[in-house]
Sequence to fold (328 residues):
Amino acid sequence: MSHDPYLEIIQYRKDHLKSASLDHFKLNELHDEMIKRTAAIALTQVSSHIGPPPSPFTFFVMGSAGRMEQSIWSDQDHGIIYLDSTDEAKSYFLTLGKEISKGLYQAGYRYCDGGVMASNPFWCKSLLEWEQQISNWMISSTWESIRYLLIFLDGRGIYGEDAYIKKLKDKIYQNMLKHHILAKSLSNTLHLKKGINVLGQLLVETHGPHAGKLNIKEIGLFPYVNAIRLLSIKEKLHETPSLSRIEKIPEIWFPARDKSFFKQQFLKLLNYRLRYSDQSDYDSGHYLTINQLTKEQIKEVKDIIRNGAILFHNVKRLLEKDGLDEDE
Fold:
């Protein structure tokens, strides 16, 4: 019987999850460790079949993994940047990307619906191809390509060479004004899903498997994540977690008092998600079971949602007032 090398990751998760499951920071450190171990095993697997990597590379994560904002279960959002633009390298790293995806899937990370994975040639490219890709996204500036840029800006190297992703982000930041990226990023994230109706009640799902529950990802977390990312782009920051981004944003945008308030609100929201979502699978982890909450907690959740909307509209106003892209 052939031994599945990824079983040890599943065991590692089992051994460590209980102690991390109610602590946002510990949980995301656990995810990082699992993803790194999976990448290392995948590289060993591929190397034993087709030899060592033909070029230095980085395996990077995006989405909630990139921002270190994962819940108990998470899906896959990742890519590979490798140095050599050869056909050999292309074939090798695509094979590695597929192996990592398979390993992560076996370790409990479901495949990304949108195909944002290193097993997809679109997200597995040489540094030169990545540079061209990023230029194309900025030049074409369609809704979709701006979406890709925003996904990429949440990326962080997790295995291999760290410098490549920084280099590509710098390329985005250097050309940002020329292509009015900030204005386009704002309009790409303008739509906020309403969470509270005119009577002040929480708008829960009305049908489907999550009926009666609150979509905490779109209603609660997104306004914070998107607002903070916009300021982080404006300031050309390399940090990816929303909490680290808030820290780094200059006080002219974000007085210290506001920083600590919004950090606290965001963290409370992440903790509500850990404690009061049915964490049986990836999807259910995004929905808050409202009928488990006390009156006080429901009031607090409403306040956090309102404050997220206030934060987003304040950032929008700040950016518009400042002239979204200075040279316009």
Summary: DSSP finds twelve helices and six strands in the chain. The first helix runs from residue 7 to 20. The CA atoms of residues 196 and 202 lie 5 Å apart.
